[in-house]
């Protein structure tokens, strides 16, 4: 393949055709850009990671104390997981992802942050359906009933733009109330969305949590002349 483009892996999954690609753009001084694509949709690019980092930073800033047990739903390229591990107050990090190839890419060192995450003894990957785990008694299959200080979610593009229709039930009030039961008192749920703040989703958060806020995170696009924006929702358990 061209030195400027390489498909590092391709797999067929339950959610569709999944690929990991590396590209190099001369206009960006030849830096390597890693992309995850599912069917015709881009799940993540290393070119845009500010919001993934903000997801961890904004949520963990809401907590007091130390020795935090944290869950991340959705591994992607690992930026949210790394940002959580960079917080010295984090004692353990459980990353749940439904796509085994994504976990394999990190374990094989095919993505830039893979070695950093897999070498940190606080971090553990679990293949599983995050939404099914929320409806069960165990987010952590090795520790049924365990409650967490923070649960961070980055799977669907937004509450209205889903990777699979079966995820929809999570975003109503009952799905969020089930998630809240996995949090310690005062624990925090945070979620990334590529859409502006959603009033209907806010109402669902209000029914499930003591308070909820939306942070608009802006970031420059090297490919456009305007800034882009995403939303990070942060809610605290009652």
Task: Report on the architecture of this protein.
By secondary structure, the protein is α/β, with parallel strands linked by helices. The chain has two domains: 5-43, no CATH class; 49-236, 3-Layer(aba) Sandwich (Rossmann fold). It is 23% helix and 36% strand. It is built from seven helices and eleven strands. It has helices at 50-60, 79-85, 100-107, 114-118, 130-134, 173-180, 199-208; strands spanning 5-13, 16-24, 32-38, 41-45, 68-73, 90-97, 123-127, 148-153, 183-193, 211-220, 227-236. It has a seven-stranded mixed β-sheet. Strands 1-2-3-4 form a four-stranded antiparallel β-sheet, with no helix packed on it. The protein is globular. It starts with a strand and ends with a strand. The mean pLDDT is 94.
Task: Give descriptors for this structure.
Rossmann fold; 2 domains; 11 strands; 238 residues; 7-stranded mixed beta sheet; 4-stranded antiparallel beta sheet; 36% strand; 7 helices; alpha/beta
């Amino acid at each position: 393949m061209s030195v400027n483009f390489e498909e590092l892996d391709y797999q067929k999954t339950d959610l569709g055709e999944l690929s990991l690609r590396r590209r190099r753009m001369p206009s960006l001084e030849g830096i390597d850009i890693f992309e995850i694509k599912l069917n015709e949709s881009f799940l993540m690019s290393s070119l845009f990671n500010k919001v993934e980092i903000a997801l961890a930073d904004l949520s963990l800033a809401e907590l007091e104390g130390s020795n935090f047990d944290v869950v991340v739903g959705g591994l992607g390229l690992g930026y949210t997981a790394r940002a959580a591990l960079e917080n010295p107050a984090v004692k353990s990090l459980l990353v749940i992802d439904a796509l085994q190839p994504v976990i394999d890419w990190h374990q094989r060192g095919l993505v830039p942050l893979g070695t950093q995450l897999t070498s940190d003894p606080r971090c553990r990957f679990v293949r599983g359906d995050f939404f099914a785990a929320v409806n069960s008694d165990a987010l952590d299959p090795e520790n049924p009933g365990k409650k967490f200080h923070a649960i961070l979610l980055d799977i669907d593009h937004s509450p209205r733009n889903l990777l699979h229709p079966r995820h929809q039930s999570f975003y109503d009030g009952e799905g969020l109330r089930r998630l809240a039961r996995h949090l310690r008192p005062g624990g925090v749920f945070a979620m990334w969305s590529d859409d502006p703040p959603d009033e209907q989703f806010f109402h669902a958060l209000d029914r499930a949590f003591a308070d909820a806020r939306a942070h608009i995170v802006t970031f420059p696009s090297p490919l456009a002349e305007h800034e882009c924006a995403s939303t990070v929702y942060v809610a605290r358990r009652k």
